[in-house]
């Protein structure tokens, strides 16, 4: 292997820049060339490449987003699209590809490998933490800190006005973000897709905390929660079935994806980049690098895609006890 390429794909997450930096500098350290691919698989198809040396990634470890830009590419889902991408890769003498992204991006990488026997390595970049084979995806920790900050601010206004806030957080089909920020932000209840609390129990629990003397409450709702109502319908239902609270909704949205990566994510990105490049140099392919037991480990891409990341339900119990 003499030349590697790196791209970021799918939804962006804080720490992607730190990962790009790590991949580029690990290549420089091992005296191999590195190309940055712009706009994910779109750029791979179009040959939108830029040579990157160690100095080209200065000043980005602390930046959110991705300097290489991200994209969703319909064309890469077709054989013709991937053939174009392979031609670009061959023309540019690229010997291996590091893909920073989520399970969709890994699926694309795996298919690309199967069709053209081309070495690929994945780095899990998503705030949702929904990927098997790593305790933390890149950006998850930063998102948690961003959301907890927001909840603290909402709490200030909630307690000044006797308000009950429903706060919707990201996380797609899993409740990792909701569970963690719920505990850290002192939420009354946490609604996650993995556990259906039911509307009656929710109202019951809120009434209980009201009569126990609480003047404000925060309920964290994971965007993928399946209680059967969206957050605005939830608000209306509670409004109709509870007295004494002014009920409000706050949907945090895309701010959760932005911002400077936390110390944890910068360290994780640096470790993942080194592991990804060195694994390719060792002749490995079709793996995702991940953090398991505080070690960098490889998980086969197909397992990472199909496996389920485990939710820590102990946190639900901790939250219940804390909201006594
Ligand atoms: P996020 O978790 O943030 O959504 P992701 O990597 O899962 O990130 P996707 O939009 O699912 O995001 O996938 C990113 C890109 O990967 C797609 O736009 C497409 O180019 C490629 N891709 C996804 N699935 C496939 C597939 N089955 N075959 C080929 N390419 C795919």
Automatic annotation (TrEMBL):
Allosterically activated by ADP and other diphosphonucleosides, and allosterically inhibited by phosphoenolpyruvate. Pathway: Carbohydrate degradation; glycolysis; D-glyceraldehyde 3-phosphate and glycerone phosphate from D-glucose: step 3/4. Pfam families: PFK (PF00365). Mg(2+) binds at residue 103. Its cofactor is Mg(2+). It is an enzyme of class 2 (transferase). ADP binds at residues 21-25, 155, 186-188, 214-216. The keyword Protein biosynthesis does not apply. Keywords: Allosteric enzyme, ATP-binding, Cytoplasm, Glycolysis, Kinase, Magnesium, Metal-binding, Nucleotide-binding, Transferase. Substrate binds at residues 126-128, 163, 170-172, 223, 248, 254-257. Gene3D superfamilies: 3.40.50.450, Phosphofructokinase domain. It is found in: Cytoplasm. InterPro entries: ATP_PFK, ATP_PFK_prok-type, PFKA_ATP_prok, Phosphofructokinase_CS, Phosphofructokinase_dom, PKF_sf. It catalyses: beta-D-fructose 6-phosphate + ATP = beta-D-fructose 1,6-bisphosphate + ADP + H(+). GO terms for molecular function: 6-phosphofructokinase activity. Residues 3-279 form the Phosphofructokinase domain. ATP binds at residues 11, 72-73, 102-105. The active site is at residue 128. Homotetramer. Belongs to the phosphofructokinase type A (PFKA) family. ATP-dependent PFK group I subfamily. Prokaryotic clade 'B1' sub-subfamily. Catalyzes the phosphorylation of D-fructose 6-phosphate to fructose 1,6-bisphosphate by ATP, the first committing step of glycolysis. PANTHER family: ATP-DEPENDENT 6-PHOSPHOFRUCTOKINASE, PHOSPHOFRUCTOKINASE. This is ATP-dependent 6-phosphofructokinase.
């Amino acid at each position: 292997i003499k030349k590697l390429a790196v791209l970021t794909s799918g939804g962006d997450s804080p720490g992607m820049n730190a990962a790009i930096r790590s991949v580029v500098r690990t290549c420089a350290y091992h005296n191999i060339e590195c190309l940055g691919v712009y706009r994910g698989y779109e750029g791979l198809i179009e040959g939108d490449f830029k040579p990157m040396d160690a100095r080209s990634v200065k000043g980005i470890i602390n930046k959110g987003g991705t300097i290489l830009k991200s994209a969703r590419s319909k064309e890469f889902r077709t054989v013709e699209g991937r053939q174009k991408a392979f031609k670009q890769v061959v023309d540019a003498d690229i010997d291996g590809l590091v893909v920073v992204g989520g399970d969709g991006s890994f699926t694309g990488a795996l298919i690309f490998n199967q069709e053209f026997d081309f070495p690929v390595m994945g780095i899990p970049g998503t705030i949702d933490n929904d990927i098997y084979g790593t305790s933390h995806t890149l950006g998850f920790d930063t998102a948690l800190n961003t959301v907890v900050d927001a909840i603290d601010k909402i709490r200030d206004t909630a307690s000044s006005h006797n308000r009950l806030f429903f706060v919707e957080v990201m996380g797609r089909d899993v409740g990792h973000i909701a569970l963690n920020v719920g505990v850290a932000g002192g939420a009354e209840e946490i609604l996650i897709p993995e556990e259906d609390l039911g509307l009656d129990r929710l109202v019951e629990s809120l009434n209980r905390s009201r009569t126990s003397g609480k003047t404000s409450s925060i309920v964290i709702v994971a965007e993928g929660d399946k209680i059967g109502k969206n957050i605005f319908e939830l608000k209306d239902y509670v409004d109709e079935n509870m007295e004494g609270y002014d009920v409000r909704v706050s949907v945090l949205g895309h701010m959760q994806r932005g911002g400077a990566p936390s110390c944890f994510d910068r360290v994780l990105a640096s470790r993942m980049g080194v592991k990804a490049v060195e694994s390719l140099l060792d002749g490995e392919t079709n793996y995702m690098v991940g953090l398991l037991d505080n070690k960098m480990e490889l998980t086969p891409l197909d397992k990472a895609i199909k496996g389920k990341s485990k939710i820590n339900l102990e946190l639900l119990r901790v939250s219940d006890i804390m909201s006594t």
